[in-house]
């Protein structure tokens, strides 16, 4: 195999499930901030005959991300990136969530653009939460800073997420950061297209992953009340979509978001969104 796929957040969940599929015709590079889970994931993939290795990297640091791409391309060109790394409201402060989910996406996207050539694809993982942010609350001017002044972008995003009661800040940061992922992926489509490359986002709903179960009491399970399919999605189900989007076949698919939520948004409506926001 003469091509490489980078999977961020590849130590488990949907990232590892996606690597298992893409490893059929790519060398796989898994990355995360923790080495032990990465080593275990690589051993798991290798036991299935997949050529895999790992690189420990901090996606909030552009230098670390650039080093990740340089190392990954050493044996074969990077043809695809599936950016599944991220944190949820139960995993940290508003600042941590903004830095990992939003700034991390900027760093991965810009490094991907620098590496992109004909046929390259970047798939950023967003969330149904990004679709639930009211349009009047979308800070479009702040989003535009993403490619001009990352430091100022970060400051304003954290300030935006830190309005209202402190208990709501992590949830606000999560919705805001994932809305940004959706919009930024669309905004950068022209730059990728100029290189014959693609970029898009995929927004999962409630999935049976470690992160999804962690958020069960804070809303992920309650969303299922509104879903057409009254169950959590399986990691292999979202992995099939992520791998397809990052593959060769959907070569005209770019600049868009694909919502994979078991019909949750279709059944949610305005009343449901308000009820979820109020916790009623």
Structure description:
The chain is an alpha/beta fold and 280 residues long. It has a single domain, classed as Rossmann fold. The chain is built from twelve helices and seven strands. Strands 3-2-1-4-5-6-7 form a seven-stranded parallel β-sheet, with helices on both faces. Strand 2, helix 2 and strand 3 (52-56) form a beta-alpha-beta unit. Helix 1 crosses helix 11 (235-246) and helix 7 packs across helix 8. The longest helix is centred in the middle third of the chain and has 22 residues, at 94-115. The chain is globular and about 50 Å long. The termini are far apart. The model has no long low-confidence stretch (mean pLDDT 93).
What distinguishing features does this structure have?
280 residues; alpha/beta; Rossmann fold; 7 strands; 14% strand
Derived structural class = alpha/beta
Report Rg: 18 Å
Major beta sheet, specifics? Answer: 7 strands, parallel
Residue runs with pLDDT of under 50 for 5 or more positions: none
Strand order of the largest sheet: 3-2-1-4-5-6-7
- Mean of residue pLDDT? 93
CATH superfamily: NAD(P)-binding Rossmann-like Domain
Shape: globular
Topology order in helix (H) and strand (E) letters = EHEHEHEHEHHHHHEHHEH
Helix count, per DSSP? 12
Q: State the share of residues found in helices, binned by percent.
A: 40-55%
Secondary structure topology:
Elements: E1 4-8, H1 13-22, E2 27-32, H2 35-47, E3 52-56, H3 62-72, E4 78-83, H4 94-115, E5 121-125, H5 128-131, H6 140-143, H7 150-161, H8 169-187, H9 189-193, E6 198-204, H10 210-214, H11 235-246, E7 257-260, H12 264-278
Parallel strand pairs: 1-2, 1-4, 2-3, 4-5, 5-6, 6-7
Helix pairs in contact: 1-11, 3-4, 4-7, 4-8, 7-8
Family: Belongs to the short-chain dehydrogenases/reductases (SDR) family.
Organism: Gordonia amicalis
Protein name: SDR family oxidoreductase
